[in-house]
Design a protein that fits this description.
With 104 residues, this protein is of the alpha+beta class. It has one domain. Helices cover 24% and strands 26% of the residues. It has helices at 42-52, 80-85, 96-103, and strands spanning 8-14, 20-23, 29-30, 59-69, 75-77. The longest helix has 11 residues, at 42-52. It is globular.
Length: 104
């Protein structure tokens, strides 16, 4: 039996800073996964990925990632790898988003 399609978002890394970024419905990039455009079916996902790949001078490593929709209606990571990516650099705990979360 075929696996059911899960919602997907387009993600990659900002070319200059290296930050994880998410493609938005407005056609830009955000560092907030909650602002990502969500594709609910394979055709929409393919079109989303094609649009997201139109920025080779801004973003590298663009791919589709499965998400779940949170109670607030925003996309949230559905896989450990994507959850880990939302935390920022892991080489030093005092850098990036991990430092912000450690202070909370």
């Amino acid at each position: 039996m075929a696996r059911a399609f899960k919602p997907r978002i387009a993600t990659g890394n900002a070319l200059l800073e290296g930050d994880v970024v998410y493609f938005t419905a407005e056609g830009g990039w955000s560092r907030d996964i909650g602002e990502a455009a969500v594709a609910a079916d394979p055709e929409t996902a393919a079109a989303l990925l094609e649009r997201a790949r139109e920025f080779p001078n801004e973003v590298v490593g663009v791919y589709l990632a499965e998400v779940r929709i949170s109670e607030s209606g925003r996309p949230a990571p559905d896989h450990f790898r994507e959850m880990f990516r939302t935390l920022g650099p892991s080489n030093y705990p005092w850098l990036g988003k991990q430092a912000e979360k450690a202070r909370v």
